[in-house]
Write a structure and sequence with these properties.
Blueprint: H1 2-15, E1 43-49, H2 57-68, E2 74-80, E3 83-88, H3 91-99, E4 103-105, E5 108-114, E6 128-136, H4 145-155, E7 157-161, E8 172-179, E9 187-191, E10 197-204, H5 225-229, E11 265-268, E12 277-280, H6 291-302, E13 308-309, E14 312-313, H7 315-321, H8 324-331, H9 355-363, H10 375-379, H11 385-396, H12 402-407, H13 426-432, H14 434-441, H15 456-466, H16 469-491, H17 498-515, E15 536-545, E16 550-558, E17 564-572, H18 578-595, E18 600-605, H19 608-615, H20 625-637, E19 642-647, H21 654-661, E20 668-671, H22 679-682
Parallel strand pairs: 15-18, 18-19
Antiparallel strand pairs: 1-3, 1-5, 2-3, 4-5, 6-8, 6-10, 7-8, 9-10, 11-12, 13-14, 15-16, 16-17, 17-20
Domain CCHC-type: 211-226
GO molecular function: nucleic acid binding; RNA-DNA hybrid ribonuclease activity; zinc ion binding
Keywords: Metal-binding, Zinc, Zinc-finger
Length: 683
């Protein structure tokens, strides 16, 4: 007996390959060793998910493979809409998956069964799922294996006990097979030998989606017909999440390394203990005999593949690797060879994350205050920023009045700190309070009728519609001063008289005006901008052709004596965006001037945004294509001896504009002699 065991161990050890220095072969040469035979016998588990949602097969198979990690891999096949076959290549992998279940995907429990040879199962036949049940509150003397088995039969079909040590546990575990068409058992009434009654409670391990109303797995209460028709509130449902027993760590691995496909894997590399590089087919998209050489060549060249060449897209490479419709889409993306791809926060214009932009992304943009719409005029009033912020907070209803603080959960006696009347609100503080009424009456400027306004925001709207600019300055200063007096009453227990308050308004407004008065600019005779006499004058423009999706760009050079020298007209691959088209036309014009050997030039454009961005010495917007194009233009300008970019009216750029509009039908380069259709404009 012992000799037979030793012989079997020796045979098993002889089959183990413990040499880490073996050579890895990807492609067998002529006369090489044949590949090892693989045992294609499989053990199949059939399963369905308890859900009405569509299962994304590609994602599901990766998730399940990552969760299972079968030693010899798994091949997953979709047999029907919600019926899947999981083919394992060793019995131990298949049985382990059954014993460690239940498993789930997207919160849907997988009901599965290990098939016998020749057995055929349909989705409707899969209704039993095995899971561990935790048993709580068993009294002393009622914890024998026989009683635990009886409890397991009460919950479902008893499978086995948990034989692991349980000295530190407050519960017992049994594995049962549960019918998914029946409600889960929450508890069990146990009558003891002395006639006493106790309730035994259950928790289910790896329990996923189930209905809190009917207790059946596979749906939730808001999708349950009985729950919707019942008169119970959700908190009154008989089931809750307490039936779930703890959780398990989520596996974030990708899962591909445990999946096996019908197609082979390609490996290359040899020598010592280095890991062999693997290439796995996820789709059966090559069937001919020479596919290995094709894939190996593409695989080896992909790491050095570049789709851009000299600042633009390499059309030949794009057409080699992409279909034509994708090539057209890629060519419309402005090429930015000087920039590396990076992450940008789309919630802000500069691409940088801030707490403010994150808050706005989560909470949404603030809604407009009903009754007031003069925001732009408010922010243009020449007063201290704190005054405008105070008025803005009052209009938004976020000043910390007693009513506002109580609405946040505080419990403060709601009375006005100045007059002692009940309910300190924004409307009362600035309109109804006797102190505020005295201040408004003693002011030296007229204000809208406060009694006719339904609210503070409505009154401010009337004021902004009727008051002059100088009156608005005093009005917002007065609002701020009333709030300042209110704070003095709260924190210092003193309130100035209305007369003193009006004087303080005048003093503050005059002091701010005196300290921030700007000296009038010195008037000097305007002089025409002088350009270098030897500079070439170049006009450029862009045109969009929406029907064909093309973008045209052109440039025209004149001498300092306004004589035609050269021109070009080209089609560009660019999105149908006027600003991007103008920026790309500027970059194209600079490249063209550089190719002609021009070192001193003045470039004119009728697009003010492009001219302003190029002449801005600050950093361009790195989170946009426009900013990248402007950076490219600045880099090209740095290679010139002297180059200026200036804005002109459209009427002075009519030659370039006309040439750009003809790009759809005519392109080219012209030296010394312009195209015929420009002769009338030049004359």
């Amino acid at each position: 007996m012992e000799g037979g065991v030793v012989d079997r161990l020796n045979i098993g050890l002889a089959q183990l390959d413990l040499d880490e220095e073996q050579e890895g072969l990807s492609f067998l040469p002529d006369g090489g060793a044949p590949p090892a035979e693989i045992n294609l016998h499989t053990w199949t588990i059939v399963g369905r998910f308890l859900t009405d949602k569509v299962i994304k097969f590609d994602i599901m198979q990766r998730v399940m493979a990552a969760a299972w990690k079968p030693a010899l891999g798994v091949r997953i096949v979709q047999k029907d809409d919600n019926l899947y076959l999981f083919h394992f290549f060793h019995m131990k992998d298949a049985t382990r998956i059954i014993e460690e279940g239940p498993w789930s995907f997207d919160n849907a429990t997988l009901v599965m069964k290990l098939l016998s040879p020749g057995e055929v199962v349909e989705a409707k036949d899969l209704n039993m799922v095995q899971m561990w049940v935790q048993i709580y509150d068993l009294p002393d003397g009622y914890t024998s294996l026989e009683i635990l088995e009886a409890v397991g039969k009460f919950v479902g079909i008893f499978v086995k006990h948990d034989t692991s040590p349980s000295i530190h546990r407050s519960y017992f575990r049994v594995r049962v097979s549960i019918d998914v068409k029946k409600p889960l058992r929450r508890r069990m009434k146990l009558t003891k030998r002395d006639g006493g009654v106790v309730w035994v409670n259950f928790k289910y391990e790896r329990l996923n989606g189930f209905c809190f109303y009917c207790g059946i797995m596979g749906h939730i209460a808001k999708h349950c017909r009985d729950a919707v028709l019942s008169e119970l509130e959700p908190e009154e449902y008989p089931f809750d999440a307490s039936l779930r027993a703890g959780g398990r760590k989520k596996d974030t691995s990708y899962g591909l390394q445990w999946l096996r496909f019908d197609n082979p894997s390609l490996g290359e590399g040899a020598g010592s203990s280095r890991r062999m590089k693997q290439f796995r087919f996820e789709n059966a998209w090559l069937r001919d005999d020479g596919y290995k050489d094709v894939i190996k060549e593409a695989w080896n060249s992909s790491s050095t593949l570049s789709l851009q060449d000299r600042g633009c897209w390499n059309l030949e490479r794009l057409q080699t690797h992409l279909v034509q419709c994708d090539v057209s889409q890629v060519q419309m993306i402005p090429s930015c060879p000087r920039r590396k791809d990076n992450w940008f926060w789309i919630g802000s214009e500069d691409g940088l994350y801030s707490v403010k932009s994150g808050y706005r992304t989560i909470m949404g943009e603030a809604t407009q205050t009903p009754g007031f719409s003069q925001w732009s005029r408010l922010w243009r009033i020449p007063v201290a920023p704190k005054v405008k912020v105070c008025v803005w907070r009052a209009l938004r209803g976020i000043l910390p009045t007693v009513s506002a603080l109580n609405s946040k959960g505080l419990e403060i006696d709601n009375c006005c700190s100045i007059c002692g009347q009940l309910s300190e609100t924004v409307d009362h503080l600035f309109l109804r309070c006797p102190f505020a009424e005295y201040v408004w009456e003693r002011s030296s400027f007229r204000v809208a009728n406060r009694s006719a306004a339904s609210s503070f925001s409505n009154w401010v709207q009337l004021v902004f519609q009727t008051a002059t600019s100088s009156e608005l300055i005093h009005i917002v200063w007065t609002i701020w001063m009333i709030w300042k007096c209110r704070n003095a009453a709260v924190w210092e227990q003193r309130v100035p008289t209305p007369e003193v308050t009006v004087c303080m308004v005048l003093n503050f407004s005059k002091g701010w005006e005196n300290n921030h008065r700007e000296d009038p600019p010195t008037l000097t005779p305007s002089a025409e901008r002088v350009f270098p006499p030897e500079a070439a004058h170049c006009f450029f423009d862009a045109a969009l052709f929406h029907a064909s999706g093309l973008v045209g760009a052109c440039g025209v050079i004149f001498s300092s004596s306004k004589e035609f020298q050269a021109a070009f007209a080209r089609r560009l691959w660019c999105p149908q965006d006027p600003l991007l088209a103008e920026a790309m036309a500027c970059r194209e014009t600079l490249s063209w001037l550089k190719s002609l050997g021009v070192q001193v030039a003045v470039i004119f454009s009728d697009c003010f945004r492009v001219v302003e961005a190029i002449n801005d010495s600050g950093v361009s917007d790195c989170a946009s294509y426009f900013g990248s194009l402007i950076d490219d233009c600045k880099a090209l300008m740095a290679s010139f001896e002297s180059v200026l970019v200036s804005h002109v009216r459209r009427s002075l750029n009519v030659v370039a504009h006309t040439l750009a509009r003809r790009v759809e039908t005519q392109t080219g380069d012209w030296d010394f002699a312009p195209p015929d259709f420009l002769m009338s404009l030049l004359n």
